[in-house]
Design brief:
The complex is a heterodimer of chains A (about 240) and B (about 260). Chain A has about 240 residues and is an alpha+beta fold. Chain A has one domain: Fumarylacetoacetase-like, C-terminal domain (Fumarylacetoacetate hydrolase, domain 2, Alpha-Beta Complex), CATH 3.90.850.10. Chain A contains six helices and 14 strands. In chain A, the strands form two sheets. In chain A, strands 1, 2, 3, 5, 6, 7, 8, 11 and 12 form a nine-stranded mixed beta sheet that branches. In chain A, strands 4-14-13-9-10 form a five-stranded mixed beta sheet, with no helix packed on it. By secondary structure, chain B is an alpha+beta fold. Chain B has one domain: Fumarylacetoacetate hydrolase, domain 2 (Alpha-Beta Complex), CATH 3.90.850. The longest helix of chain B is centred in the first third of the chain and has 17 residues. The model of chain B has no long low-confidence stretch (mean pLDDT about 95). The chains are: A alpha+beta (about 240), B alpha+beta (about 260). Chains A and B meet through strand 9 and strand 10 of A and strand 8 and strand 9 of B.
């Protein structure tokens, strides 16, 4: 099994915006192989790493996937979208959006907290994958938007999260869906980074995981997430 | 709809509650006639009052987009709350009173004044609300396997079972109701999470709907009434004895402590 070839398959799928079959259908990958493929996929982007994201942090998703450990993926500078900015739909296959909390780590300590939106886009057909598939595919990472940073001592436990699309409520939830309390993401990210041999830069963004189910993104829509007492963040998906 | 049909539907539901054996739906009797369904509910409540029960408020159901889609409806419904359904935070709730209980976390409005206008606004609701409490609603269905349509659940008193109220009041202006977070915990797990906006955009909107609906039906909300405004997240089955703790941002915590075994 040639891990570089598998990484190329996924990188090409992203570049061509053309979904591919699940790798696990044809290859017997273990979790270490999957993280090795992920590393190659991220290397192939040739862009500066800006942070990490956690996946499968909600009990609902864990139950759905039958998987009870959290996974980690990487963020790169070209995935960042400015708050209130615009995003080109041409970059994606079948994008979805979910509201999150982001932490800014400096020297391993939390320096700030922000509301965030993550755009996920599986490179697999029909968004269907198992654990090793999604790890190899950099945990479906595609883009992210960070809201205004707030002080590190901002309480993030059980804050209401409302995601609106074009002014209508699309998803509602609580930050309690993220590992019980999103603060646990900080320690979890450090643990998973160590376990998978990932070097966290001195300044790192951590996307803690989704507070609600993901909503499909359609061109021409404006998405806004607000997190109680934390603030709001938005972007427009171009027509 | 004939009185006979209303009586038969009410009798079927009352028997199920008394014997704790779930019954067939009542839609074979009342079809999709919503007024008939509310007439069944009124007959059931009337019988309870005759037996010495006291109405203490109402519950609003079908307030989430997902549940409305599931039942194919575009509006909420309501049920009637009586004193024997009420429990306080941490007070034991005997499972034996239910058939197939489920729990959900909600905001309870306690009124300081009557709300008797048919075109009730959110401003009217906020002015009339003396305080808010965190609440756990225990919903239950007398109908086997929860096989319900809109008229089945309305006839069955909005699938009401019981409710648990927190004991520390919060003034309505002290919580941004559309944005409050909710987590329902059971055995250390977050089994349901949500936010205020899940309830018709804001729980206060649901209460305004209820107030108008009850005023039109000539049974307006009164000072002292409790209104359970609707679930803030997915409903969760109760599998046995134990604690379900709801945490509502800005409102505090409330625990439903189930004891015994379900009927």
């Amino acid at each position: 099994m040639n891990l570089e070839a598998l990484a190329r398959t996924l990188a090409d799928a992203a570049a061509d915006r053309s979904a591919v079959p699940q790798l696990s259908r044809e290859y017997d990958l273990d979790l270490a192989d999957a993280y090795a493929v992920q590393r190659l996929v991220v290397d192939a982007r040739k862009r500066a790493r800006t942070g990490v994201k956690l996946g499968l942090t909600s009990r609902a998703k864990a139950v759905q996937m039958g998987v009870f450990d959290v996974i980690i993926g990487e963020l790169t500078e070209d995935m960042a979208v400015a708050d209130g900015g615009r995003l080109d739909p041409g970059r994606f296959i079948h994008p979805r959006v979910e509201p999150e909390i982001a932490f800014l780590l400096r020297g391993g300590e939390v320096a700030a907290v922000a509301p965030a939106l993550e755009i996920i886009d599986s490179r697999y057909r029909d968004f269907r994958f198992n654990l090793v598939d999604v790890v190899a595919d950099n945990t479906s990472a595609a883009a992210y938007v960070l809201g205004p940073w707030r002080a590190a001592d901002t309480d993030t436990a059980n804050r209401g999260v409302v995601m609106e699309i074009d002014g209508r409520v699309a998803e509602t939830g609580s930050t309690a869906a993220i590992l019980g309390d999103p603060w646990r993401a900080v320690e979890t990210a450090a643990r998973l980074a160590r376990a998978t041999g990932l070097h966290l830069p001195d300044e790192t963004v951590v996307l803690a995981g989704a507070a609600t189910a993901a909503a499909p993104l359609t061109p021409g829509s404006t998405v806004e997430a607000r997190v109680s007492t934390l603030g709001r963040v938005s972007f427009t998906f171009d027509a | 709809m004939s009185d006979d049909v209303i009586t038969r539907a009410a009798e079927r539901l009352r028997t199920a509650q008394r014997t704790k054996v779930a019954c067939a739906p009542v839609r074979d009797l009342i079809g999709d006639d919503l007024d008939a369904a509310y007439a069944v509910q009124a007959a059931l409540t009337g019988a309870l009052i005759t037996d010495g029960e006291r109405v203490v408020g109402h519950k609003i159901g079908l307030t989430s987009a997902a549940v409305q889609r599931q039942l194919g409806v575009d509006r909420p419904d309501f049920g009637t709350l009586t004193a024997s359904m009420a429990y306080a935070d941490g007070e034991p709730v005997p499972l034996g009173r239910f058939l197939q209980p489920r729990v959900e976390a909600e905001v309870a409005f306690v009124l300081g004044r009557d709300l008797d206008t048919e075109r009730c606004t959110v401003a009217d609701v906020l002015r009339a609300t003396e305080f808010l409490l965190p609440a756990v609603e225990i919903v239950d269905s007398r109908i086997a396997d929860w096989d319900i349509t809109l008229t089945d659940t309305v006839a069955d008193n909005g699938s009401s079972g019981a409710f648990v109220l927190g004991t520390t009041p919060v003034r309505p202006g002290e919580a941004v109701l559309s944005d409050i977070g909710m987590v329902l915990e059971h055995r250390g797990e977050a089994v349901s999470t949500g936010a205020g906006a899940a309830c018709l955009g804001s729980p206060v909107t649901a209460v305004a709907w209820l107030a108008g609906e009850l005023a039109r039906r000539g049974q307006p909300l009164r000072a002292g009434h409790v209104v359970l405004s609707g679930a803030l997240g997915p409903v969760v089955p109760v599998s046995g004895a134990g604690v379900h703790r709801a945490r509502l941002e800005s409102l505090g915590d409330v625990r439903a402590v189930f004891e015994g075994a379900a009927a």
